[in-house]
Amino acid sequence: MALLTVSGLGVTIRDEALLRDVSFEIAAGEVLGLAGESGSGKSLTALAVSRLLPATAAATGSVRFEDQELLALSERELCAIRGRGIGLVFQEPATALNPLLTVGAQVAETVRIHLPVSKAEARERAARALRRVGLDPARIPLGRYPHQLSGGQRQRVALALAVALTPKLLIADEPTTALDVTTQAQILALLRELSAADGMAILLISHDLAVVAEMADRLAILHQGTIVEAGRTGTVLRSHHHPYTAALVRDFTPAALARRRRGPASPPVLEALGIVREYPGPRTGFMAQGPALRAVDDVSLTIGPGERVGLVGESGSGKSTLVRTLLALEPPSRGSVRVAGETLAARPTVPQRRLRRLLQVVFQDPYGSLNPRHRIERIVAEPLHLLDAPLSRRERTARVAQALVDVGLDPGSARRFPHEFSGGQRQRIAIARALVVEPRLVILDEAVSALDASLRTQILELLGRLSEARGLAYLFVSHDLGVVRAVTDRTLVMQAGRIVEEGTTEQVLLAPRHPYTQALVAATPNLERALAGRASGA
Question: Total structural domains in the chain?
Answer without folding.
Answer: 2
